[in-house]
């Protein structure tokens, strides 16, 4: 009896209204701003991110160009917004395409056990044998400059985390006496999942999703920066850094803009789940 | 005792050998897919690489096609490709015309130097910070380093590299911007990677120091009359070291990824830089060679961490 008490208080504490700390609220606020920027895109400020104007390069921030112009006279604010649109939509898409099958396969592996478990486990081990970015780099190299290759590569490396986490947690949850009792009552597998498994693994999955999105945004920018990912003239943060790096002497403020955007995005995603370590 | 130690060492070796095999197969298959995805006729391209663009003709291309089995179905070609890889035949660089293995052997040294520098830098930062924070949990040092850790963790390695270059190399002129001319070139790239590694590992160390300071055996060693300093150095730090060393294993993926990107930021003449260049230049033999070396380096470093953990912690040894 005594060993059940902490479990009870634990689940009670979770069913209560969630309380967010200052860091987490900051993360939500930053994410909200980024989401508005990404949803609106360059049309928010009515500027074309690709329109060059060679007569007005390296302009200081002004009423018409809120953050100045780059080496080709393109509006920096519009380019940053367009980059936010690209990075965040890719991050969201790859988190969904990695998270759903990853979680499902994790549940299936824990449920079925045996050969199914071993087969999916072996596949996940094969993906994990190489550092993630190296795999994304090589997959992106199969068709360079393609958005789809980048998306497929990132999703392929991200799903493993969901799979491993879900499989491990589901094995524990499914062997609990409470689940055994529900099963003996004749409840369907769907009810078991909804009532027992999802409340247990939900918060962990959210943390994984936030960190996965941060990894996706970083990977896109890193690959763009080393000229292996998306190509100019795409307004992508990593590509913009490469383009603006040669002009650091004339305009150090310009190169710092995409760098800061990237850092703030990753920071917002980390903070929104409490800045904790991965589960 | 020795046979038990041998057993654990062999178990670790077998696990990592399997991983090395998987790395080779994955890199081989992806490189092969890259080869297939290239536009144009592979036989012509290889013939041009071998004999030079002026010396080759359709007959030479046909000879290459027959010799390498390029007229076979793709699955058979993949088999031939992997068989060559199994014989450590990495081929010739399509751009430089030199054997890939020669290129890699010079670059590997530079990459190892950078990886070593990064680990040393991370330990130089994380050890004092983590121990100071752990000895006084929720103190001012702990809070400040927690905030800094969250911040530095959010900064991607290449962005941090750019910022460090702009501050220390460009504005202050303390260190060279890029390339490799002497040990002073090692400072900024190592610091870039080291800060990223230390941002997480100092928290791991802090947590394990806190746990160790609360443990019963620590109280016992104080009760039996051991001084606070000796308890710390002999018992607490040794116990706290295990999670940190084990965590270096988790961080190796970050390290290898960081090496690839940071080498490019600093024009460091290592394998990561070569890999990025090879992808950019469609030099598939070099892509395969460098990716394989980086993957195997990852496995080898993991093996070192496995063995180090077993060296520190006698509990992990099989009876």
UniProtKB/TrEMBL annotation, chain A:
UniProt-annotated location(s): Cell membrane
Residues forming the ABC transmembrane type-1 domain are 84-273
A cellular-component GO term for this protein: plasma membrane
GO BP field: protein transport
- Give membrane topology per the record: Multi-pass membrane protein
Q: What is its main location?
A: membrane
For this protein, the record's Pfam families field holds: BPD_transp_1
Matching InterPro entries, A to Z?
A: BP-dependent_transpt_permease, MetI-like, MetI-like_sf
What are the UniProt keywords, alphabetically?
Cell membrane, Membrane, Peptide transport, Protein transport, Transmembrane, Transmembrane helix, Transport
A molecular function (GO) held by this record is:
dipeptide transmembrane transporter activity
Q: What is this protein called?
A: Peptide/nickel transport system permease protein
From TrEMBL, chain B:
Instruction: Give GO MF terms, alphabetically.
Output: dipeptide transmembrane transporter activity
Q: Where in the cell is it found?
A: Cell membrane
Source superkingdom: Bacteria
Question: Keywords of this protein's UniProt record, alphabetized?
Answer: Cell membrane, Membrane, Transmembrane, Transmembrane helix, Transport
Ranges annotated as spanning the membrane: 20-38, 108-129, 150-174, 186-205, 244-271, 291-309
What PROSITE patterns does the annotation carry? Answer: ABC_TM1
InterPro entries documented for this protein: BPD_transp_1_N, MetI-like, MetI-like_sf
Domain ABC transmembrane type-1, which positions? 108-309
Q: What is this protein called?
A: Peptide/nickel transport system permease protein
Q: Name one GO cellular component term.
A: plasma membrane
Q: What is its main location?
A: membrane
What Gene3D superfamilies does UniProt report for this protein, alphabetically? MetI-like
Q: Which family does it belong to?
A: Belongs to the binding-protein-dependent transport system permease family.
Lineage of the organism: Bacteria, Pseudomonadati, Pseudomonadota, Alphaproteobacteria, Rhodobacterales
Q: How does it sit in the membrane?
A: Multi-pass membrane protein
């Amino acid at each position: 009896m005594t060993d059940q008490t902490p479990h009870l208080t634990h689940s009670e504490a979770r069913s209560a209204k969630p309380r967010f700390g200052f860091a987490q609220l900051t993360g939500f606020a930053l994410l909200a701003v980024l989401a508005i920027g990404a949803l609106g895109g360059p049309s928010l400020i009515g500027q074309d991110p690709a329109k060059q104007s060679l007569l007005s390069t390296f302009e200081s921030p002004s009423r018409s160009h809120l953050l100045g112009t780059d080496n080709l006279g393109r509006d920096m604010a519009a380019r940053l917004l367009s980059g936010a649109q690209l990075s965040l939509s890719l991050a969201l898409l790859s988190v969904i395409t990695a998270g759903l099958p990853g979680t499902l396969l994790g549940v299936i592996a824990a449920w079925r056990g045996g050969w199914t478990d071993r087969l999916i486990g072996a596949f996940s081990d094969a993906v994990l044998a190489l550092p993630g970015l190296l795999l994304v780099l090589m997959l992106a190299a199969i068709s360079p400059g393609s958005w789809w290759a980048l998306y497929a590569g990132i999703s392929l490396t991200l799903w493993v985390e969901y799979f491993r986490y879900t499989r491990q947690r589901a094995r524990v949850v499914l062997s609990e006496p409470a689940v055994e009792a529900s099963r003996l009552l004749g409840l369907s597998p769907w009810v078991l999942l909804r009532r027992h498994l999802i409340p247990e693994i939900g918060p962990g999955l959210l943390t994984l999703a936030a960190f996965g999105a941060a990894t996706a945004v970083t990977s896109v920018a890193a690959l763009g920066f080393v000229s292996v990912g998306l190509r100019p003239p795409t307004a992508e943060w990593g590509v913009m850094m490469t383009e603006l790096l040669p002009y650091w002497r004339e305009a150090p403020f310009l190169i710092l803009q995409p760098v800061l955007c990237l850092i703030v995005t990753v920071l917002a995603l980390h903070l929104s789940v409490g800045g904790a370590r991965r589960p | 005792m020795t046979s038990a130690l041998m057993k654990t060492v062999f178990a670790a070796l077998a696990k990592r050998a399997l991983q090395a095999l998987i790395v080779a197969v994955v890199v081989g298959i992806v490189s092969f897919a890259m080869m297939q995805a290239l536009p144009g006729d592979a036989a012509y391209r290889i013939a041009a690489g071998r004999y030079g663009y002026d010396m080759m003709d359709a007959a030479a291309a046909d000879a290459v096609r027959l010799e390498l089995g390029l007229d076979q179905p793709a699955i058979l070609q993949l088999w031939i490709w992997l068989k060559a890889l199994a014989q450590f035949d990495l081929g010739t660089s399509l751009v430089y015309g030199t054997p890939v293995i020669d290129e890699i052997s010079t670059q590997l040294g530079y990459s190892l130097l950078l990886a070593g520098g990064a680990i040393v830098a991370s330990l130089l930062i994380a050890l004092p910070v983590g121990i100071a924070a752990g000895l006084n949990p929720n103190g001012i040092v702990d809070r400040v380093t927690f905030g800094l850790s969250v911040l530095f963790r959010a900064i991607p390695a290449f962005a941090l590299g750019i910022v460090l270059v702009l501050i220390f190399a460009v504005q202050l002129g303390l260190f060279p911007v890029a390339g490799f001319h002497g040990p002073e070139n090692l400072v900024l790239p190592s610091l870039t990677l080291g800060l990223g590694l230390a941002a997480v590992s100092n928290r791991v160390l802090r947590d394990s120091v806190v746990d160790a300071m609360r443990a019963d055996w620590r109280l016992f060693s104080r009760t039996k009359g051991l001084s606070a300093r000796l308890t710390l150095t002999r018992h607490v730090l040794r116990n706290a070291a295990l999670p940190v060393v084990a965590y270096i294993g988790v961080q190796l993926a970050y390290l290898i990824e960081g090496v690839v990107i940071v080498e490019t930021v600093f024009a460091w003449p290592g394998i990561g830089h070569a890999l990025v260049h090879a992808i950019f230049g469609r030099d598939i033999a070099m892509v395969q060679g460098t990716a394989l070396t980086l993957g195997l380096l990852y496995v080898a470093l993991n093996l070192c961490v496995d063995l180090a953990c077993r060296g520190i912690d006698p509990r992990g040894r099989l009876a």
